[in-house]
Automatic annotation (TrEMBL):
Family per similarity comment: Belongs to the Cob(I)alamin adenosyltransferase family.
Name of this protein: Corrinoid adenosyltransferase
GO annotation, cellular component aspect: cytoplasm
Domain Cobalamin adenosyltransferase-like: 7-173
Catalytic activity line of the entry: 2 cob(II)yrinate a,c diamide + reduced [electron-transfer flavoprotein] + 2 ATP = 2 adenosylcob(III)yrinate a,c-diamide + 2 triphosphate + oxidized [electron-transfer flavoprotein] + 3 H(+); 2 cob(II)alamin + reduced [electron-transfer flavoprotein] + 2 ATP = 2 adenosylcob(III)alamin + 2 triphosphate + oxidized [electron-transfer flavoprotein] + 3 H(+)
Pathway connected to this protein: Cofactor biosynthesis; adenosylcobalamin biosynthesis; adenosylcobalamin from cob(II)yrinate a,c-diamide: step 2/7
Any GO BP annotation: cobalamin biosynthetic process
Protein localization: Cytoplasm
Keyword Nucleotide-binding: yes
Any GO MF annotation of the entry: ATP binding
Keywords: ATP-binding, Cobalamin biosynthesis, Cytoplasm, Nucleotide-binding, Transferase
Family annotation (Pfam families): Cob_adeno_trans (PF01923)
Its EC number(s): 2.5.1.17
């Protein structure tokens, strides 16, 4: 259980922060950029949930919890030392990726195939989901970059890759099952 009695600690005043294993790193480090952007993605999901109802809201709530799991995973380097840790680190699992894939498949089954690229927009929920998609794509890029320098859980990368796809398909659902998608018209304003 997490207990936060005091919100500010002043330990980051010199531009460093502590990772999940206690190591102090610069706040602009690749690892902090990756999990910080995951946190930003989570905030965009919170905005999207203001427009969601029923199953969509429930699925977004699960994604928000997953994103906290993902942040916990990414803030803990040295996966090879997991077995020796005092407390087992929280790592993303293949089941979380599989759940997203199942949800994508179920949503996509209700949609007509695309014949054009889609512009972010349509309903308020669809527009918010497109924002979620783009921020999660940035989180994925930063996490992939981190993985070129340090160990990263492969399921974390897979989850982020599926997540942006989930947001894309969900945005189409939010646009009246794709009927209200805003389609790109190449060269329309020349």
């Amino acid at each position: 259980m997490v207990v936060l009695n005091k919100i500010y600690t002043k330990t980051g005043d010199a531009g460093e922060t502590a990772l999940g294993n206690g190591t102090r790193v610069a706040k602009h480090s690749s690892r902090v950029n990756a999990y910080g952007t995951v946190d930003e993605a989570n905030a965009t999901v919170g905005l999207a949930r203001q427009h969601a109802e029923g199953d969509m809201d429930a699925q977004l709530a699960m994604i928000q919890n997953d994103l906290f799991d993902l942040g916990a995973d990414l803030c803990r380097p040295d996966m090879e030392k997991d077995a020796d840790a005092e407390y087992p680190p929280l790592r993303m699992a293949a089941a979380q990726v599989s759940r997203l894939e199942s949800e994508i498949d179920a949503m996509n089954a209700a949609l007509e195939p695309l014949r054009s690229f889609i512009l972010p927009g349509g309903s308020a929920l669809a527009a918010q989901l497109h924002l979620c998609r783009t921020v999660s794509r940035r989180a994925e890029r930063l996490t992939v970059e981190l993985a070129t320098m340090e160990s990263v859980n492969p399921d974390a990368v897979k989850y982020l890759n599926r997540l942006s796809d989930w947001f894309f398909v969900a945005s189409r659902i939010a646009n009246n099952d794709g009927k209200d998608d805003v389609l790109w018209v190449p060269g329309a304003n020349r």
